[in-house]
Design a protein that fits this description.
Blueprint (H helix, E strand, L loop, with lengths): L8 H4 L6 H7 L14 H11 L4 H4 L2 H7 L13 E4 L7 H11 L4 E5 L15 H39 L7 H13 L6 E7 L15 H14 L7 E7 H17 L4 H12 L1 E5 L8 H4 L9 H12 L2 E4 L2 E4 L4 E6 L11 H6 L11 H9 L5 H10 L4 E4 L1 H17 L6 H17 L8 E4 L1 H13 L9
Parallel strand pairs: 1-8, 2-5, 5-8, 9-10
Antiparallel strand pairs: 3-4, 6-7
Length: 471
């Protein structure tokens, strides 16, 4: 395993108890100004609350979000992380997704097998950055919407009052305030008013246009606006109750307020400074060198690896929102590598993904921790689901350990599918309980014991996977 030495590396070693002391004692230098306000140990602790994966993996991913930050002066070269799992369902994707959520960063998960080499029919790898920009645009719109929502709600209320009581004036102030009180109390929700409702978007030929050319996209938007009579979106007059019209008017006011915000500039900055791309199934686009002579005729194999080289190294991609530089985008590649080796990848691609994080298979203790430690664990989901029927569900600790034991045994004897095996075991145990929960009396307590688990799984554990003995 390799690691990248950086000013953050010495902080990663501290444990939870002494974390605050070491963070306060850690010397700050002028160039350590990050976009994220959390230190790497704090990010690790917050991820561990949500998803349980080996600490070996957790200590690397948050570290590189700081290392790849372009806001640092004299920053070292950004190093991307290939997270080679060697096992299935061990938390590779979830770590990157949770880390991006904590940092409020644009995150995109793609499958390496969905792309083809440039010149072949299909999506090229540049589409990764374009899709990431679309995610960043939605994130920027959501962030700015929360900032202006209170103002938009006030404007929407005034707009409805204008329809009910007419424009505000000194003589109509008393009547307007009475309408305002009734509107806020919900007494006028059934009254119908006429408003302009945006028309449903019609299917156009934008997919046939070059979406990478901003001029063509702007021209298409202009033609649509001219066809709508100068409005940004075509609308029609409808008579709706106030309860339905309130939401429509609120959305219209939000769009008007967001017209004065440069969402594209904010989205491009977010992508270039904190974007995260998770490329899954990277092992499926390489072939064993012994069997293929180092070459592959598949359009989704070696050619895609070559196309990924400039993208990971750092280049400028032209999107419909503007040019995006990929120098500081964090690329995380993931694969099981059960049929091929890491060395089967192109040497150039291996050089651009220098940090390797190998995850081992989940043991019985790991499966037990997955059932109990995360906030939204599988056991709590089942308890809340049965609780919706008014039934109290209780899992004994011995039952949880037996579930983890059954899952680990099935992974060894049948097929190792990692933590997803817990879904199979739990659904078999909860099948009859979920079916009968609707007919139980409210307040009934159902206890899942070790004997319950053994009885439900008895038929499964006795079966042997004989397929391996068939020639």
């Amino acid at each position: 395993m390799y690691s990248l030495l950086s000013p953050c590396a010495c902080m990663v070693q501290c444990n939870t108890k002494s974390m605050q002391h070491k963070i306060n004692a850690y010397p700050r230098t002028p160039y350590q100004t990050y976009t994220c306000t959390l230190y790497t140990p704090q990010i690790v602790v917050r991820i561990r609350v949500l998803v349980l994966v080996p600490y070996t993996c957790l200590r690397f991913v948050p570290l590189f979000t700081h290392t790849c930050s372009p806001t640092r002066t004299r920053t070292p070269q950004c190093s991307d992380v290939p997270m080679f799992g060697f096992v299935f369902s061990c938390g590779k994707t979830e770590v990157a997704r949770r880390m991006a959520e904590i940092n409020d960063a644009p995150f995109l998960k793609v499958e390496a097998t969905k792309f083809t080499e440039v010149g072949y029919h299909g999506r090229d790898v540049d589409q990764i950055v374009r899709d990431l920009m679309d995610v960043a645009m939605q994130l920027a719109k959501k962030r700015h919407t929360e900032l202006v929502r209170d103002q938009a709600e006030t404007l929407a209320e005034e707009r409805i009052l204008d329809i009910l009581a007419g424009p505000s004036s000194e003589t109509a102030t008393r009547g307007r305030e009475s309408f305002r009180d009734m509107l806020q109390q919900g007494l006028l929700d059934d009254q119908e008013i006429e408003i302009d409702v945006p028309s449903p978007k019609q299917q156009n030929n934008q997919n046939e246009l070059d979406q990478t050319n901003p001029q063509i996209v702007a021209m298409s938007d202009l033609m649509q606006r001219l066809a709508a009579g100068g409005k940004k979106t075509p609308s029609e007059r409808k008579k709706l109750p106030i309860s339905e019209a309130r939401g429509i008017v609120l959305e219209l006011e939000l769009e008007r307020l967001l017209e004065h915000v440069d969402l594209k500039k904010s989205a491009i900055k977010a992508v270039e400074e904190s974007g995260v791309v998770f490329i899954d199934e990277i092992d499926k686009i390489c072939s064993p060198k012994e069997g293929m002579g180092g070459r592959s005729a598949d359009a989704s194999a070696e050619g895609v690896q070559r196309d990924l080289l400039p993208l990971i190294e750092g280049t400028t991609i032209n999107t419909k929102h503007g040019n995006v530089n990929t120098d500081y985008i964090l690329f995380i590649a993931s694969g099981a590598f059960h049929a091929v080796k890491v060395s089967d990848l192109l040497p150039e691609l291996q050089g651009r993904l220098p940090i390797r994080v190998e995850l081992a298979g989940l043991t019985q203790d790991d499966l037990y921790k997955i059932l109990t430690e995360p906030v939204a664990n599988l056991v709590r989901q089942q308890v809340e689901l049965i609780g919706a029927e008014g039934v109290r569900l209780v899992f004994e600790d011995e039952a949880l350990r037996e579930i983890a034991k059954m899952a680990a045994t099935l992974n060894k004897t049948v097929e190792n599918i990692g933590a997803r095996r817990l879904h199979t075991v739990l659904e078999r145990i909860m099948g009859s309980i979920s079916f009968d929960a609707a007919e139980m009396e409210a307040g009934t307590t159902v206890t899942v014991t070790k004997q319950t688990v053994e009885d439900r799984m008895q038929s499964v554990t006795k079966k042997m996977d004989v397929s391996r003995y068939i020639l």
